[in-house]
Amino acid sequence: MFVLAGLLLAAFFTRRVGAILFVAVFLFQLFEARGKSAIILLLTFLIPIGLWSYRNHTVIKQVQVLQKKPLKEESKYVAIKKTFFINIKYYREQATILLLTHRNEYNIHALRLIPALLVIGFIGCLFKQRTVIEYYVLMYIMAYMLHPYFTQGVRYYMPVLPFLMYYLLFGIIHIVNITVKLLKIQSRARDVFKGVATVITVTILINLHIKASWGLIGHLKNKGYYREAKENLLASIQWVKNNTGPDDVFISDRSAWVYLLSDRKTYGYKRVEDTALVLNSIIPKKPDYIIDSNVTGYARYLRQTLNDYPHLFIEVYRKGDSVVYRSLTEKK
């Protein structure tokens, strides 16, 4: 149990979305295994997280939690409901990009069939061979249906894509089994029918997007690995590494990138529309430099703050839309 807790902690500290894996394992232990094991797992996981949060609080005077997109003037229930339906529409569109070569009437009908087969396969697994994977997939999908960012592309499918493909195949096999019973196919012919029907169905699904996949691969080979905004940020980080001191402190919307690639202590900032609050979150960290880039959607909060308080920041390097500023906030 302690080894399991250690692995879950490693997943969480690698990326905080790893908390979903802990929730899945905890619920599985609670409902499918022994309740005592679930309590031990909960305590073994939460104690290190609590100590880590306290450490963060003492370092930067604010507990590290998942950043949230500021909500407009509306109730939390309305905001959550709106987010859920926006995500449903968005990820349905991403599924179209992921699965289909091009849109036509045949493909659209196929795309409607795929979720039905997925649901059938998932429900079948829930009732026949429920494992921690079912808990994880359910928790993962629920979490991202409520996640307030809508520009993530197909990459959020990747952690559960193998499981979704399994449920899809399981759903196909379930439908084939029902068809066999309805047609009353007997003995050896039944196994042949199951195999042929499954292979044909899977082949059709693969054919829906294989041409698009090859086209995408060819497109990526003919262009740079990163988009221009990321290339500019990487150039700025390289400049930071070559032209600043090892003890200098930085603020960036990509703090992990700056720290990893330049070996400079780097912090984030408060992501809100009120630039005074953003500035107040920056000042206690006593930064020497600010890196403004156009890589993320929430970079606008920092950029607006830089525009509102120009006397506190001096531009020292620019690469495209990525700018490094010398910070004068200690003199404020």
Instruction: Compute the number of helices.
Output: 12
Q: Strand arrangement, largest sheet?
A: 2-1-3-5-4
Mean pLDDT across residues: 80
Q: Based on Cα principal axes, name the global outline.
A: globular
Total beta strands = 5
Separation of termini? Answer: 52 Å
Overall tally of structural domains: 3
Order of helices and strands: HHHHHHHHHEHEHEHEE
Q: How helix-rich are the residues, as a percent range?
A: 55-70%
Rg, Å, rounded: 25 Å
Structural class by helix and strand composition: alpha/beta
- In this structure, how is the largest beta sheet organized? 5 strands, mixed
Q: Which spans of ≥5 residues are poorly predicted at pLDDT below 50? A: 62-73
- Portion in strands: 5-15%
Describe this structure in words.
The chain folds into three domains: 2-60; 76-221, no CATH class; 228-331. Helices cover 64% and strands 7% of the residues. The chain has twelve helices and five strands. The protein has helices spanning 2-14, 19-31, 35-60, 76-99, 105-128, 132-145, 161-183, 187-221, 228-243, 255-262, 275-282, 299-308, and strands at 249-252, 265-267, 289-292, 313-319, 322-327. Helix 7 packs antiparallel against helix 8 (187-221).
